């Protein structure tokens, strides 16, 4: 599956502002989200599996890859397209061994060293941040646009910017070298998730077009 | 690998009374533990992987199977012998599909219905309890020796008794139909883990011998 990172939705079904996570996901997909990552931090795994199976079908209908945060066994069980792992999670080379050559494997990388290690380990893309301050991820260290640019220059892998990204600052991420932007609450807590996704998609598409013209 | 459930150690490296988890594990193995399950509830996964790799080697030296609580991907990464899953964890049929026909798969089952479902799903053994009151697992519902007996009679799978088991009450578990006993703190918090394991092993062996004579 080819990798379109333009608008990358991180979805925690426990945090969709009291709305049905599947309805929020479908609204986001209608709005133009290009990747969905399922993240699940607390609660029974079987609930995630039931919920993930429905999300799996939904993403297939929209031809958008579904990635699972951290757990390669859940990715296998759900026939998801891959996993996203942090620096303290399952190592990407282990994820690759478990999931095979066609799986999509993303790694959180905040420094050039982490980016190069992930690239050597066979990652398909990097998640880099926090670019801007954010309430979603307490204690996430801020790297700023300059940190994003430094990572993007250090690797041949596509980089998705994460952390406090919204429709207003998405273009700056693309200008700093990102292939796309990852958001959590900017979509899942938005009054209108479809409109929020659409605004992000438009901002990213315009910035990518501008970058191509400049390039 | 054949399955000897006589003394089943559940090891949480975060709870070994301030001692090195590997030293506690080796003492327990010297004392006669026949299965080790690695349980890890909090903290970075990579720490569990580093730690689990050392435990993997230790268990191999003692020819004792190593099982991983819940995570089939960690079992694959560590080349462990299998997994133990609860009723809300990865379903046993999914674990079987991921780990293959030779893996050992245990399921927590407190009722005959759960036991029969686990058997149908391809489990190799059941963990049944809490047989006695315990401080290790808050909120674990008590089923007593009668509940243990009911489950053991409802299945052809070997059953390991868990929850408040010690060298004094282990024989009663075997008499109720258990193939062995699982302990956490009775070994890991004991002043002398090797002696604690040895006392449990002796109690279980004597009770199994008595049961064979009676049978
Ligand atoms: Ni703990």
TrEMBL record, chains A, B:
Its EC number is 2.5.1.3. InterPro entries: Aldolase_TIM (IPR013785), ThiamineP_synth_sf (IPR036206), ThiamineP_synth_TenI (IPR022998), TMP_synthase (IPR034291). The keyword Magnesium applies. Its cofactor is Mg(2+). Binds 1 Mg(2+) ion per subunit. The keyword Phosphoprotein does not apply. Mg(2+) binds at residues 70, 89. It comes from the Bacteria. 2-[(2R,5Z)-2-carboxy-4-methylthiazol-5(2H)-ylidene]ethyl phosphate binds at residues 134-136, 164, 184-185. GO terms for cellular component: cytoplasm. Residues 7-187 form the Thiamine phosphate synthase/TenI domain. It catalyses: 2-(2-carboxy-4-methylthiazol-5-yl)ethyl phosphate + 4-amino-2-methyl-5-(diphosphooxymethyl)pyrimidine + 2 H(+) = thiamine phosphate + CO2 + diphosphate; 2-[(2R,5Z)-2-carboxy-4-methylthiazol-5(2H)-ylidene]ethyl phosphate + 4-amino-2-methyl-5-(diphosphooxymethyl)pyrimidine + 2 H(+) = thiamine phosphate + CO2 + diphosphate; 4-methyl-5-(2-phosphooxyethyl)-thiazole + 4-amino-2-methyl-5-(diphosphooxymethyl)pyrimidine + H(+) = thiamine phosphate + diphosphate. Belongs to the thiamine-phosphate synthase family. This is Thiamine-phosphate synthase. The gene is thiE.
